[in-house]
Every structure is written in C-alpha cells, then in structure tokens.
Amino acid sequence: MFIELADTLVDDYDVLDLLHVLCDRGVELLQADAAGLILADQRGLLHVMASTTEEARLLELFVLQNDEGPCLDCYSTGEKIVNIDLDEVEERWPRFRAATIAAGYRSTHAIPLRLRGQVIGVLNLFCTDRTTLSDADIALGQALCDIATVGLLQERTVRRGEVLAEQLQAALNSRVLLEQAKGVISERVGVTVDEAFVLIRAHARRNHLQLGAVASAVIDGTIAASELTPR
C-alpha cells in the first residue's frame, strides 16, 4: 500500500486518483465501511475531493455546509479525532450526529493530512458498527495520510509554491467534471453513481489517462458511455 501511494512521487501523477486511493486503502485497512476526504484549496477553503460511496460524499458536503463535525475540528487543530461513538457526541455535533446516524453509521474517525505544521486536508472514516481503532491502527492511518501528503507537498511543489496551488485547483476542477461524468454514466448505462465511478476509474487506468481527462471526454461525448462498460 505504501509503494502504491509512493508512486505519486513521479512527475505528472493524477492528484485526484491519489486521493481516491487513500480513501480506498483507509477503508480496507482500518475496519471502516466508507471514507471521504476533504482538501483545502489555495485560499484555505475546504472541498470534498474523494469518497468511496455516494453516502460518504453527501455526509462530507453536509459537514462543510453546516460548519460542524469532527473533520473540521481535525483540520483546525491538526490532531486526530478517532473512536467517536455517535451516541456520545449529541451536544458537541448535534446536526452531524443526526445526519451520520441517518446514513447508517454508528462511529467515525478523522485523520489529518499534514506535514509538520501544515494541514492540507482530512481523511474521514465512517463505520456502521461502533468500531474502535487500536494504537497500531491509528498509527497506520496517520502514516498513510502522511505519505499522501508528501505526494502533494513534494519537493518540486515546495520549491515552486504556485505549483501546489495550481495542482489543487486542477484536482478540484477535475472533481467537478468527475461528478458530472458519474451522473452521465449512471443515467445512460443504468448503474449507480458509485458503479459509474468504478467504470471511469478502470478506463482511466487501463488506458493510462487521468480521471479528469476521462470525465471530460465522457461529458463532451468523445468517449461513449458504452465504451466504459465491461465486455
């Protein structure tokens, strides 16, 4: 998993795909059922950039729109907020608690994407059961987030600060296109939006293309929806 994330250190890597890989691996390794990731742009505004399910994406949007939830506290402090039993946080995050329970989750964890004192985002994990992460689990989750952060803040972007801003803005633009493309595929092929993302991502990897490029091609019709379905 670390080798997979370290592959982002090469030139011209796909930032959006990196963020989705981090969400996927977080779910796989940390006993979670879904994950979402928020990232700050060059102005410090937070955006939902990746998620493993549509429910997780909507929860992340709810958090940002209502300015309430553990991921926001995690981002502002740079500290992990883990092993949150939703039955115990009604006073602290009442709206977040209600929305998360309505989505079918009972516990959650927030792990920062940080390098030294700089926090650029948060990985959020959602669990349908009351899940407790061990110290080893928490260390692993932070390590995964750290190496992904290094990928985003690697030496070539530190050397030229404007590159990071451009990179994050490009990822944000690609995310908007990706959401539109998921809707197109979902409607034309008759699959869920989560399944549509799997098709888009598989096509991108199979043809060595970036997610944003495939999404744009789906929207403008260069790639037909039928071309993405398994034969």
CATH class of the largest domain: Alpha Beta
The low-confidence parts are: none
What is the CA-CA span between the terminal residues? Answer: 29 Å
- Strand percentage: 15-25%
Based on DSSP secondary structure assignment, what is the total number of beta strands? 5
Q: Looking at CATH, which topology of the largest domain would you report?
A: Beta-Lactamase
Tally of separate domains: 2
Question: Considering DSSP H and I runs of 4 or more, what fraction of the residues is helical?
Answer: 40-55%
The secondary-structure class comes to alpha+beta
Number of helices: 10
Q: What do these coordinates show?
A:
This protein folds into two domains: 2-158, 2-Layer Sandwich (Beta-Lactamase), CATH 3.30.450.40; 164-228, Arc Repressor Mutant, subunit A (Orthogonal Bundle). It has ten helices and five strands, in the order H-H-E-E-H-H-E-H-E-E-H-H-H-H-H. The protein has helices at residues 2-6, 15-29, 54-66, 70-77, 94-102, 135-152, 155-159, 161-190, 193-206, 211-220; strands at 34-40, 46-51, 81-85, 107-115, 118-127.
Task: Explain briefly what this protein structure is.
The chain has 231 residues and is an alpha+beta fold. The protein has two domains: 2-158, Beta-Lactamase (2-Layer Sandwich), CATH 3.30.450.40; 164-228, Winged helix-like DNA-binding domain superfamily/Winged helix DNA-binding domain (Arc Repressor Mutant, subunit A).
Task: Show the helix and strand layout.
Blueprint (H helix, E strand, L loop, with lengths): L1 H5 L8 H15 L4 E7 L5 E6 L2 H13 L3 H8 L3 E5 L8 H9 L4 E9 L2 E10 L7 H18 L2 H5 L1 H30 L2 H14 L4 H10 L11
Antiparallel strand pairs: 1-2, 1-5, 3-4, 4-5
Helix pairs in contact: 2-6, 3-5, 8-9, 8-10, 9-10
